[in-house]
Amino acid sequence: MLDRIQAFLHTLTSPHHTNEFAPDDPRVAFVALCFQVMEADGNVSPKEQQKFRDLLRERYDLDDDGLKALISAGQQAGSEAVDYYRFTSDLRRHLVQEEDRIELLGILWDIVYADGERSEIEDHVIWRIADLLGVSARDRVLARQQAAARVSVDAGGED
């Protein structure tokens, strides 16, 4: 009990962080979906984690503290969710253009291919996300193929 009171008083007296993210922030929804995809096959590789961090840093121009706060908020939201709908509905409201939703799928595929492997479970998770975002099967497959091609080029598969 005393620990909870001390923690509460500490939150009142400590400076508020500007890196806090609201639960309905589309960035939190995006991070939560990334975690859902990374954890789908039961193995989150260091390469997936690094790709994920690099993509977030690049996409949202965050410093280390902001990146940690966003990842923490997204991970917490993802662990509390029972399905993808909460996140896809937030993102769908913010990603009005179909191209933006397709780009989001491309990023998810980039994370999947970061470790060089693609599992049926990862396919299924992205299929569900694409369906909820209103992205066609054709565009989902094209985004997957483009991500696979990027990995091939990055690995030196193209001369």
UniProtKB/TrEMBL annotation:
Query: Which segments of the protein form a coiled coil according to its record?
Result: none
Q: Which domain of life is it from?
A: Bacteria
Pfam families per record: TerB
Occurrences of domain Co-chaperone DjlA N-terminal (ranges): 28-145
Q: What is this protein called?
A: Putative tellurite resistance protein B-like protein
| Species per Swiss-Prot/TrEMBL record | Neorhizobium alkalisoli
